Amino acid sequence: xxxxxxxxxxxxxxxxxxxxxxxxxxxxxxxxxxxxxxxxxxxxxxxxxxxxxxxxxxxxxxxxxxxxxxxxxxxxxxxxxxxxxxxxxxxxxxxxxxxxxxxxxxxxxxxxxxxxxxxxxxxxxxxxxxxxxxxxxxxxxxxxxxxx
Length: 148
Fold this sequence. Notes:
- Keywords: Heme, Iron, Membrane, Metal-binding, Transmembrane, Transmembrane helix.
- This protein is mostly helical and 148 residues long.
- The chain has helices at 23-51, 61-68, 71-99, 102-129, 142-146.
- It has one domain (28-133): Fumarate reductase/succinate dehydrogenase, transmembrane subunit (3 helical TM bundles of succinate and fumarate reductases, Up-down Bundle), CATH 1.20.1300.
- The chain has five helices and no strands.
- It is elongated, with a radius of gyration of 26 Å.
């Protein structure tokens, strides 16, 4: 009786499939994380603007100018802007993927991406380049402008 040997393949020699990025999973995860962060940011925003100080009647141009003179509030408002806008755009992307098909879907997705980029750019520019002291400052802004 002659022994026949069967070759056992070496481990990990099979061809591995190239993994692609799972954009749907990352989008789903972003919605959950950004949703929690947005709740914290929004309640902080409402607390400072509506409940502390004189409430809603104190919100005017000088109040906003004073807040945007502080780098903390610029970063805070920018995080709120970016998280909220991308969160909303991601939700719209999901709706477009569910209901639009063919070329119309591509048109909607490109328009959504364009609108998101434009709004993020404009909002970021407003927050980072805001200068309340252009021209003749009002009496309420004079102390802020004199400090610069």
